[in-house]
Amino acid sequence: MEVKVQADRETVERELIAAIRECMEAGGKECPELTSETVPFKDLQGFDSLCGIEVAVDLESKLAQPLGEDLFVAGSGESARPRNIREIAGVIMKHGKRMGKGDRAKHA
After folding, report:
1. How many CB atoms lie within 10 A of CB 47?
2. N or C: which end of the chain has fewer CB within 10 A?
3. CA 76, CA 99: separation in Å to the nearest integer?
4. Is the residue at 1 inside a domain?
């Protein structure tokens, strides 16, 4: 049985970076050094929406929480702006805090 653990921002960033690196390497794409300021959709050649989905699914499994659809991009349409790793980690942290105890039990 998987147990939900509240992670700190540093841990979330580390897991996010590892998931992005794994996705890029699995697709045969070169993955440069990743930092908190890296914007995956802008800075990583070959990182596309499919990579974003794969990373989100991987993180949902590792962190035992749903992450939503707005993980890598803020806004929509013409106002859409890709997020950096620090911002993505912040979204993940907010998602974890918003989940009530009943929701956690459903996803654990």
Report:
1. 23
2. N
3. 23
4. no
For the entire predicted model, the pTM comes to: 0.81
CATH of the domain at 102: 1.10.1200
What is residue 80's three-state secondary structure? coil
Residue 37 neighbours by CB distance under 10 Å: 10
How many domains are there within the chain? Answer: 1
Cα distance between residue 52 and residue 102, in whole Å: 28
Q: Which residues pair with 73 in a beta bridge?
A: 82
Q: Is 27 a domain residue?
A: yes
Assess contact for 17 and 37: CB atoms under 8 A: no
What is the rounded average pLDDT of the residues 32-57?
Answer: 96
Residue 4 lies in a domain: no
Domain that holds residue 60: 9-107
pLDDT digits (tens, 9 = 90+) for 60-96: 998 888 887 789 999 999 999 999 999 999 999 887 7
